[in-house]
Design goal:
Elements lengths: L10 E4 L5 H12 L3 E6 L3 H13 L4 E5 L5 H14 L5 E4 L15 H29 L2 E6 L3 H4 L6 H21 L4 E8 L5 H6 L2 H9 L9 H12 L10 E4 L7
Helix pairs in contact: 1-2, 1-9, 3-4, 4-6
Length: 255
């Protein structure tokens, strides 16, 4: 039986891949045969742990430090990936963070800009760097990581993050329309409450309990469950899926 998830011979770049969903995605892409560029900004130890897991299983990967909000860093990252692994076939725009919970009247312009740059501008910058080679080859798959917050306005003190993620859903559609004629599929995944370092940093035990109570499946999700959907979208199994945002939230939000 043919494996439509097979990514043998493909090169994938995953931003923010040192922990959580990004790390799980990098590992799973490698399990399906892709060579993977593991991007990180500050968490070098985490990125190296992902690298070790991939190479120990016989996969091929490299680690690249880059601040994806900076175009010079991004160009260097893409050039190194291409030089060391080959032309990029799969781009996973995963890097992002709430940065800090802030209510409306607490939110500063500087913090607003930080969150917009990390969660929205970075996707534009990285995609612009990767896409020309995809257009030239008339092939590629891009998956952006948005959030349930982009649909419902976010939890307490998260409206800036929610706004950026909502913008990313729209950016995904716009890029999908423009790039589809070039053989490039663009989609996004919107995780709900997932067991990652994100909630260890930004959510209290009381908040997590309230989140779980709102999920029909009665539990939070895992990074691996999210990564499975990302890998699906990156693969030929999703060859006619374009411009979609797939919700991965245990039924917390049904569209």
């Amino acid at each position: 039986m043919k494996n439509y998830l097979d990514l043998t011979g493909k090169v994938a770049l995953v931003t923010g891949a040192s922990s959580g969903i990004g790390a799980a995605t990098a590992i799973m892409l490698a399990e399906q045969g892709a060579s993977v560029a593991i991007n990180y900004n500050r968490n070098e130890a985490g990125a190296n742990a992902v690298l070790q897991q991939i190479t120990a299983a016989g996969g091929k990967a490299i680690v690249i430090q880059a601040d994806v909000t900076k175009s010079d860093d991004v160009r260097t990252m893409v050039e190194r990936t291409t030089n060391e692994l080959g032309a990029i076939d799969v781009l996973i725009n995963n890097a992002g963070s709430l940065v800090e919970r802030m209510k409306l009247l607490e939110l500063t312009e500087a913090r607003w800009d930080d969150v917009m740059n990390l969660n929205l501008k970075s996707v534009l910058v990285v995609t612009q760097a990767v896409v020309p080679a995809m257009i030239e080859r008339k092939s590629g798959a891009i998956v952006n990581l948005t959030s349930i917050a982009g649909r419902n306005g976010g939890g307490p003190g998260a409206m800036h993050y929610a706004t950026a993620k909502g913008g990313l859903i729209t950016l995904t559609k716009g890029m999908a329309k423009e790039l589809a004629p070039h053989g490039i599929r663009v989609n996004s995944v919107a995780p709900g409450v997932i067991d990652t370092p994100f909630h260890e940093v930004f959510s209290t035990a009381e908040m997590m309990k309230a989140f779980v109570n709102s999920i029909p499946m009665g539990r939070i999700g895992t990074s691996e469950e999210t990564a499975k959907v990302i890998v699906f979208l990156a693969s030929d199994a999703a060859s006619y899926v374009c411009g979609e945002t797939i919700e991965v939230n245990g039924g917390q939000l049904m569209l």
